[in-house]
């Protein structure tokens, strides 16, 4: 079988982005099939290719995966209009590949929603099986965040969402809320598989060397946030908690924000102007280096803006990295992950927009390291029991290859 896999933000463990698609593609390759991965040129994530571009493309093989990288650079630092134009240009290039490449099944994963268009073209113009993976509900999330308000654009995106779901032979959802969102648009539930993000225990459970940033000593409690610094991530709430801790004199609790994004400069300005010397701003890190930092931390921060659409409609990579490393998690919004943390007793679930409760949780963590260690053990067990990447990758591969037998 030949799988054409479209993921604009594909990254390997050499880069700083999420590696779900890399692991899924490797599962297909390990079964003796061929995978052609089509991606854009990321800034923080790396495809693994290093050769020159020719006519806007470069091709090569990375760990058995045939990679086609389109010379369209994308960054979380970009403004919405620039990102939208890059999404559209990527869509147009991938439509051409969907109509010309050799493949038996086309798989496309969001974001953006526009990656569904090549799948629609392959389904209806070449009669190829199409499997669509939904990582976020668009346009519901950007509409709820207020980043897209134009009714015409929202209407077009809603129509594209409907056509993508209806055109796909099978769908993959990364959270329970996404399953429900897809079903509400008329897709039969039997065509939707819930396959959440997984834990890369091979990377995070036993990293080569744990480390801490300069200025953080062993007796300090180190809380880390690893991921995009954008509107959705709600990192002002972390700085609000840091300010509360500083008012309380808790200089022994340090917070490291690791990553990049549109709001990073805003956050750095707040840190400087408010004198938040308990906050460290770090650039994105390759996976192995990041695993060492997570291993050296005491608690992982899982934060999002207080938007109800996020509560059950997201599956953040960072949560799974934390529990893979046996790191307790502090979560600041309701939803399925908050419930999971509470049921598993592997961290803290605090109310949104409540810096005092956020600071209280960090103080509690700092005050009882034995209890915190027990939370970490339960987090590691959760990674094994429910989110082992190998198990989830095998389930995903069965679902995708099984479309060829679908009547």
**Biggest β-sheet strands, sense, barrel:** 8 strands, mixed
**Cross-sheet strand order for the largest sheet:** 3-4-2-1-5-6-7-8
Any low-confidence stretches, pLDDT <50, length ≥5? none
Helix share of residues? 40-55%
What CATH architecture label of the largest domain applies?
A: 3-Layer(aba) Sandwich
Number of helices: 16
The fold-level CATH name of the largest domain is Rossmann fold
Looking at the structure, what is the overall shape? globular
Order of helices and strands: EHEEEHEHEHHEHEHEHEHEHEHHEHEHHH
- SS-based class: alpha/beta
- Residues in β-strands, percent: 15-25%
β-strand number:
14
Helix-strand layout with pairing:
Blueprint: E1 2-6, H1 20-30, E2 34-42, E3 57-62, E4 65-74, H2 80-100, E5 105-109, H3 116-125, E6 130-134, H4 140-145, H5 151-167, E7 170-173, H6 176-184, E8 192-194, H7 201-204, E9 221-226, H8 235-247, E10 253-258, H9 264-273, E11 279-282, H10 287-296, E12 299-302, H11 308-313, H12 317-324, E13 329-331, H13 336-344, E14 347-349, H14 355-367, H15 369-386, H16 389-401
Parallel strand pairs: 1-2, 1-5, 2-4, 5-6, 6-7, 7-8, 9-10, 9-12, 10-11, 12-13, 13-14
Antiparallel strand pairs: 3-4
């Amino acid at each position: 079988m030949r799988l054409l896999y479209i993921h604009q933000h594909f990254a390997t463990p050499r880069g700083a982005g999420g590696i779900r698609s890399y692991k899924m593609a490797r599962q297909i390759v390990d079964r003796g099939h061929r995978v052609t991965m089509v991606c854009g040129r990321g800034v923080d994530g790396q495809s693994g290719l290093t050769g020159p571009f020719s006519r806007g493309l470069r091709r090569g093989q990375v760990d058995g995966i045939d990679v086609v990288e389109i010379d369209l650079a994308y960054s979380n630092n970009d403004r919405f209009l620039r990102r939208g134009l890059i999404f559209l240009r990527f869509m147009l290039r991938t439509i051409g590949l969907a109509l010309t490449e050799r493949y038996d099944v086309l798989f496309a994963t969001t974001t953006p929603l526009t990656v569904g268009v090549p799948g629609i073209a392959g389904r209806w113009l070449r009669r190829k099986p199409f499997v669509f993976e939904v990582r976020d509900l668009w346009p519901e999330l950007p509409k709820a965040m207020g980043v897209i308000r134009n009714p015409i654009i929202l209407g077009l995106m809603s129509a594209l969402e409907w056509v993508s779901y209806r055109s796909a032979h099978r769908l993959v959802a990364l959270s329970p809320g996404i399953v429900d969102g897809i079903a509400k648009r008329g897709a039969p539930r039997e065509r939707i598989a819930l396959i959440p993000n997984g834990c890369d225990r091979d990377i995070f459970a036993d990293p080569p060397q744990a480390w801490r940033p300069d200025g953080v000593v062993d007796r300090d409690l180190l809380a880390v946030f690893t991921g995009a610094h954008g509107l959705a991530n709600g990192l002002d709430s972390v700085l609000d908690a840091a300010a509360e801790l500083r008012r309380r004199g808790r200089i022994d609790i340090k917070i490291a924000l690791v990553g990049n994004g549109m709001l990073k400069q805003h956050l750095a300005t707040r840190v400087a102007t408010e004198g938040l010397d308990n906050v460290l701003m770090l650039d994105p890190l390759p996976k192995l280096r990041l695993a060492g930092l997570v291993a050296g931390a005491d608690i992982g921060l899982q934060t999002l803006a207080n938007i109800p659409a996020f509560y059950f409609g997201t599956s953040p990579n960072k949560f799974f990295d934390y529990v893979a490393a046996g790191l307790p998690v502090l979560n600041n919004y309701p939803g399925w992950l908050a419930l999971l943390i509470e049921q598993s007793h592997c961290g803290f679930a605090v109310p949104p927009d409540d810096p005092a409760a956020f600071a209280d949780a960090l103080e509690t963590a700092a005050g009882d390291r034995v209890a915190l260690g027990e939370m970490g053990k339960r987090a590691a067990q959760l990674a094994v029991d429910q989110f082992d990447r190998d198990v989830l990758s095998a389930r995903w591969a069965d679902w995708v290859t099984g479309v060829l037998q679908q009547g």
